[in-house]
Queue: 4 jobs
Job 1
Amino acid sequence: EAQVTQNPRYLITVTGKKLTVTCSQNMNHEYMSWYRQDPGLGLRQIYYSMNVEVTDKGDVPEGYKVSRKEKRNFPLILESPSPNQTSLYFCASSLTRVNEQFFGPGTRLTVL
Amino acid sequence: AQTVTQSQPEMSVQEAETVTLSCTYDTSESDYYLFWYKQPPSRQMILVIRQEAYKQQNATENRFSVNFQKAAKSFSLKISDSQLGDAAMYFCAYLNYQLIWGAGTKLIIKP
């Protein structure tokens, strides 16, 4: 089944404790992206990747890191999480930048 | 900078009736894409419909259709024969170099 998977689905952590949210797609998509969703703000792009080893900042990259060592994986790293990073995070992928994006199920992150 | 505006935070419609959700956007580009995504309570983001700006014909997917007015920068979604399963947040999105999202419209279906 074609899908985008994210793990974990729920995470409660404390300020400053490094964490990684994994994202994997099995559709051989070139383009992958991370978004955060906050009430009343829609989705905002954190980082995106056009292909392996090619990543770029979105609208709200501060406090996040990403890597794209393999085509299928695009992990989101929070080196030192803070409470303002409490949010719902989505990973998405598409064949290219201009194609339909397929979304993962979301990761609910709470930083205390 | 491109922006997407959904002016209706919440809409309600009687089951089996028709409802239209509004979306306007601001861009200086001539080539872009527009989308409507649906987010039900499960939080999954689901593509409803897609429109290429160079196409004059309005996109249609079963009960879902759009009214794309390029000059007015308007992209409304019409849902016909509303069903209980249509209840969700609906997001309008603009794509050129990146996907820009509206704040969403919550659609309530009254049985």
Job 2
Amino acid sequence: AQSVTQPDIHITVSEGASLELRCNYSYGATPYLFWYVQSPGQGLQLLLKYFSGDTLVQGIKGFEAEFKRSQSSFNLRKPSVHWSDAAEYFCALLGGGYQKVTFGTGTKLQVIP
Amino acid sequence: DSGVTQTPKHLITATGQRVTLRCSPRSGDLSVYWYQQSLDQGLQFLIQYYNGEERAKGNILERFSAQQFPDLHSELNLSSLELGDSALYFCASSVEPGAGEQYFGPGTRLTVT
């Protein structure tokens, strides 16, 4: 079975501060991992993806994520958060013979001035 | 704008009724995915089609069915609706059938009263 855990339901950071959103996964093979962002009332937008190779991947909007196999983690980071980053963030894993995507429960990010 | 369109945007109906949600994938995408997002269940994968054929099934109820037509648009049929079916229903599309890189539509908000 495959699963994705996002342990933080809600995170509040100050504008300009750094951000790290946690994602842990469980999967028996090499996973394909993704981070999506959902703004209020919108669909999900892909931020970045990891398939193989360099374990530090860069995405859009200044986000990056690091794949750590030993920790089964794929944490999302941003060095300086902007107010427009306030949204819900979903970590996802592609497994099931690369047919099935499993999403985490999401982390809501609030940005305060 | 992801290029994926969904209609209608909002739908209000009564328990026991049947509704059809429609999705048009991005131009060139052969795969369509349906998801349900609710407060208590989070984002749940329902079903996937690739070039007209069912490819993968998730947590889709027997009261729900879907199909993908020759022009690649897809419909999700929800019948014998219950209050608990109230949710946001997203459609996503991708080029490959096993792609985690999916493009999401804006969703259809279904309210069952």
Job 3
Amino acid sequence: GNSVTQMEGPVTLSEEAFLTINCTYTATGYPSLFWYVQYPGEGLQLLLKATKADDKGSNKGFEATYRKETTSFHLEKGSVQVSDSAVYFCALYTGTASKLTFGTGTRLQVTL
Amino acid sequence: NAGVMQNPRHLVRRRGQEARLRCSPMKGHSHVYWYRQLPEEGLKFMVYLQKENIIDESGMPKERFSAEFPKEGPSILRIQQVVRGDSAAYFCASSPPTSGRHTGELFFGEGSRLTVL
């Protein structure tokens, strides 16, 4: 079956530090990959996505590259801000199932 | 506000009572999904509905839980005889109708947080 594995949190960084949140997946077929972000007390919002191998999704300074050879979709940002503090979820969708499969989420805390 | 609307935002129930959670999808969306988020855990799929049809309920507990998306009105997730383990955030998401392959992109509501005393 499909599954997503994310690095354990919480991740605590100082403002302007470099961020990497690891995500690997197992899937049948050729999944689309997503990063969603959940700010405190809110629902999830799509952050970025990639639909095929070697695609790079980017938004708000965040980037992730779909690596089929390593089945990974790591999230990166060169310089985090306090406002980036949130929980980040990696997810996949294969199209043969009707649902997104989410990782467990990684909490990011950015301090001044 | 044209987003996914969920209510109530917070619901407190005693063990054995019923909980009803409502979700109005984004305008023009005909697909509704319910997910459950337990404390400190990720989102777990529960059910996928289209108008008047349950498409996939593979994530729904076999007992006490039911969902509907009537022709008119919001989608409703119903939990009968709640127990403490039902305490969680329940998120609804919607997606537009598709003429072919789903993209997998979902639009989420802000969630309904159920607390069972």
Job 4
Amino acid sequence: QVQVMQSGAEVKKPGASVKVSCKATGNTFLGYYMYWVRQAPRQRLEWMGWINTITGGTNYAQKFHGRVTMTWDTSTNTGYMEMWSLRSDDTAKYFCARVKGSYSGMDVWGQGTTVTVSS
Amino acid sequence: EIVLTQSPGTLSLSPGETATLSCRASQSVSTTYIAWYQQKPGQAPRLLIYGTSSRATGVADRFRGSGSGTDFTLTIWGLEREDFALYFCQQYGTSPYTFGQGTNVEIK
């Protein structure tokens, strides 16, 4: 059974950075895309970007350009999303999810990582 | 960016009834790039439908997706108790990929 485990909750001060990890059993993400999506309280889901786990190529939503980096560690089959210059409105639950191809939806999800930004 | 507007915001129905959820896009979206997700409190979303009408693995056939252009629909035939949840549509044809605000299907 596929399991995707994300790192634990984080509390950060404004201006700090955070790095969230996402690891799946076996080769769940190998050869596919890892998407990152966040869900702020009382807000709709927000797509942040993706990374191709074969090429390492990335595509970030314009809103996050220059503030987010997504990486993939092939040695541990673990993906990372790092965001810096955190603001209070970055407080949200951050999810990783698998997408098999351009025509597919996000079919395997992590449990989510809550990031709270507060002074 | 493409704005997705879902209606109604809340749908109050009884088990066994049929739910019809609407998702309207601010501009035309290829049918290839519309998905629907179900989310229950405290859980991650679950993929139900991709490509407008293709059911994801393990999804019951009472979930049907349809539509084209700017209007898309998720129909749930014969609601079962586990179907009462929040539902989102998503377009992934044009970056940034966007989601609707959700329709809450609640027990009447």
